[in-house]
């Protein structure tokens, strides 16, 4: 129990560094840990208010995610396990940046607007907020999202404990793979890079629930290396190479989590030592084609869409639309946008290219699947498909992208289909691509439209990009201000790596010249 005035007094013990201004973005607050003391305190206050407003349990996740060890961050989890609603992101920013002597006013404003509504606040009799804390200790970000959801739905979808999480997801995995029992130990083997983060500990904790259905070799388990340093999903995706210090045999199936285990990418090296990355786009393709096949077998008329961002490789979009005839949507970067779009379909598969994503099933879809699974009159093919769909609903964490649950689904699909990682990789060939960063004095000068695929300002930038793109075959390029770093991101893809690199460099130069670049002019890639 904490009186308002008492809380304010306490807040003075966690002062805001002078001049520091932070914004609640796609990743919550994220910066060097030294600058976050006041943020942690104030987000505790905001979580209390959000809980009061929604009359529900709210999650508070402290994590540096895929960022370096010296960083930290905090984000709030809404009642259904979703990301914090946008209006409250603004309150978070306001509380974070309020000077100490203005904090009381900022907090009262939230209370007045959201909780007391038209009632007058009587200064000295501010409501006493009773707050129940449930401390889960060290968990992955998606585990917290899952437990908040279970908590607020009174256990309808599962038990709000870490053990409950393992039981539900692993049971579904065992169900999915039970007819693939002739797999060899080699086929069941998977190398997991835990990014020296929480995912590694949790995989170890979970393993026995899998009933030997998966043979995991764990690397970067946090026993020596630094968090996300030369390892993890972000490193592998951006560098397009395996984590340092991992011995992988040619052809061996590997995956990397990020530090808080909400992203996953797969990869292998071939016998020539060439690295093959299976990123979020390949994962979305594997999952959506599996689901589409099952829907056909089950005779269920449910629509299925894949939601991507502009970073999705052009080959994946073409393959999904033209070969697989799946609906494809493109949204702005940031999982909340993808999640929202995916909710519009019976089944929405969403993945960012960096490996953050999940599958959403509408209530109607879940009911239809269940009916068919329980229908005594349906034939064997239909019944098998319905049961597999039902287990897929249970194996996936629908609240948010989840490396562990995504890994279980991917492994199950490969097992059910008897597919190797090489066969999965061969579904389509990625267009060579390159991502670069450009420093500018104020990245807000760049404004975009069409799901960030076109720049509307500064004047002339889009025209410059258009004419550069025309020089190369199968080329595409776009620029956007990052939401998490003080840079402009440049993306280019083209028929060859040389073309993609050259185009990315030329577009970087256009950004540098037209959008107020600082420091040295971008140099061509070696
Ligand atoms: C190109 C890229 O990977 N961008 C990432 C990155 O956002 P930026 O706004 O690009 O900095 O961090 C976000 C939060 O983790 C993630 O949602 C997004 O996909
Ligand atoms: Mg993360």
TrEMBL record:
Catalytic activity, EC: 5.4.2.3
Broad enzyme group: isomerase
Residues covered by the Alpha-D-phosphohexomutase C-terminal domain: 455-508
Residues given in the record as Mg(2+) binding sites: 65, 258, 260, 262
Alpha-D-phosphohexomutase alpha/beta/alpha domain span: 52-98
Active site per the UniProt annotation: 65
Catalytic activity, as annotated: N-acetyl-alpha-D-glucosamine 1-phosphate = N-acetyl-D-glucosamine 6-phosphate
Highest rank taxon of the organism: Eukaryota
CDD domains found in the cross-reference section: PGM3
BP GO annotations: carbohydrate metabolic process; hemopoiesis; UDP-N-acetylglucosamine biosynthetic process
All copies of domain Phosphoacetylglucosamine mutase AMG1, residue ranges: 165-265, 279-417
Molecular function as annotated in GO: magnesium ion binding; phosphoacetylglucosamine mutase activity
Sorted UniProt keywords: Acetylation, Carbohydrate metabolism, Isomerase, Magnesium, Metal-binding, Phosphoprotein
Pathway named in the protein's UniProt entry: Nucleotide-sugar biosynthesis; UDP-N-acetyl-alpha-D-glucosamine biosynthesis; N-acetyl-alpha-D-glucosamine 1-phosphate from alpha-D-glucosamine 6-phosphate (route I): step 2/2
Classification via InterPro entries: A-D-PHexomutase_a/b/a-I, A-D-PHexomutase_a/b/a-I/II/III, A-D-PHexomutase_C, A-D-PHexomutase_C_sf, A-D-PHexomutase_CS, AMG1_II, AMG1_III, PAGM
Protein residues bound to substrate: 352-354, 480-484, 489
Cofactor binding mode and count: Binds 1 Mg(2+) ion per subunit.
Cofactor: Mg(2+)
Function: Catalyzes the conversion of GlcNAc-6-P into GlcNAc-1-P during the synthesis of uridine diphosphate/UDP-GlcNAc, a sugar nucleotide critical to multiple glycosylation pathways including protein N- and O-glycosylation.
PANTHER family assigned: PHOSPHOACETYLGLUCOSAMINE MUTASE (PTHR45955)
Family to which the UniProt record says this protein belongs: Belongs to the phosphohexose mutase family.
Protein name, entry field: Phosphoacetylglucosamine mutase
């Amino acid at each position: 129990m904490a009186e308002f005035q008492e809380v304010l007094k306490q807040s003075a013990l966690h002062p805001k560094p002078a001049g520091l201004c932070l914004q609640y973005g796609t990743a919550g607050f994220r910066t060097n840990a030294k600058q976050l003391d006041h943020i942690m305190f104030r987000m505790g206050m905001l979580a209390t208010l959000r809980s009061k407003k929604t009359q529900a349990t709210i999650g508070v996740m402290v994590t540096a995610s895929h960022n370096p060890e010296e960083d930290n961050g905090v984000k709030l989890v809404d009642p259904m396990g979703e990301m914090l609603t946008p209006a409250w992101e603004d309150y978070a920013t306001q509380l974070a940046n309020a000077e100490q002597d203005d904090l009381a006013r900022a907090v009262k404003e939230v209370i007045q607007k959201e909780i007391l509504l038209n009632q007058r606040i009587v200064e000295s009799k501010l409501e006493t907020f009773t707050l129940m804390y449930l401390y889960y200790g060290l968990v992955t970000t998606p585990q917290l999202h899952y437990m908040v959801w279970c908590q607020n739905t009174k256990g309808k979808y599962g038990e709000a404990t870490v053990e409950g999480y393992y039981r539900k997801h692993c049971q579904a995995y065992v169900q999915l793979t039970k007819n693939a029992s002739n797999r060899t130990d080699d086929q069941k083997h998977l190398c997991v890079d835990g990014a020296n983060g929480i995912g590694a500990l949790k995989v170890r904790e979970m393993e026995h629930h899998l009933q030997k259905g998966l043979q995991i070799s764990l690397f970067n388990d946090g026993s020596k290396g630094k968090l996300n340093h030369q390892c993890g999903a972000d490193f592998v995706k951006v560098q397009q190479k395996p984590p340092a210090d991992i011995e992988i045999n040619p052809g061996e199936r590997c995956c990397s989590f990020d530090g808080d285990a909400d992203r996953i990418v797969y990869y292998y090296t071939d016998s020539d030592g060439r690295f093959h990355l299976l990123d979020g786009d390949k994962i979305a393709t594997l999952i959506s084609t599996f689901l589409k096949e099952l829907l056909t077998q089950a005779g269920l008329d449910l629509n299925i869409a894949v939601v991507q961002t502009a970073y999705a490789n052009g080959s994946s979009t073409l393959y999904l639309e033209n070969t697989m005839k799946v609906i494809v949507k493109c949204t702005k970067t940031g999982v909340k946008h993808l999640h929202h779009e995916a909710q519009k379909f019976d089944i929405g598969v969403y993945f960012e290219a960096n490996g953050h994503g999940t599958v959403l099933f509408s209530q109607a879809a879940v009911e239809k699947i269940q009916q068919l699974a329980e229908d005594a009159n349906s034939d064997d093919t239909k019944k098998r498909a319905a049961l597999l769909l039902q287990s897929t609903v249970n194996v996936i964490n629908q609240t948010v992208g989840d490396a562990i649950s995504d890994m279980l689904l991917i492994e199950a699909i490969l097992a059910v289909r008897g597919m190797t990682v090489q066969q999965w990789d061969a579904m389509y060939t990625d267009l060579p691509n390159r991502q670069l960063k450009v420093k500018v004095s104020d990245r807000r000068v760049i404004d975009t439209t069409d799901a960030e695929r076109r720049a509307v300002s500064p004047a002339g930038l889009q025209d410059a990009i258009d004419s550069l793109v025309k020089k190369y075959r199968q080329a595409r390029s776009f620029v956007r201000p990052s939401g998490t770093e003080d840079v402009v991101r440049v993306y280019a893809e083209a028929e060859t790596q040389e073309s993609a690199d050259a185009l990315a460099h030329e577009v970087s130069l256009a950004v540098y010249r037209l959008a107020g670049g600082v420091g040295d002019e971008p140099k061509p890639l070696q």
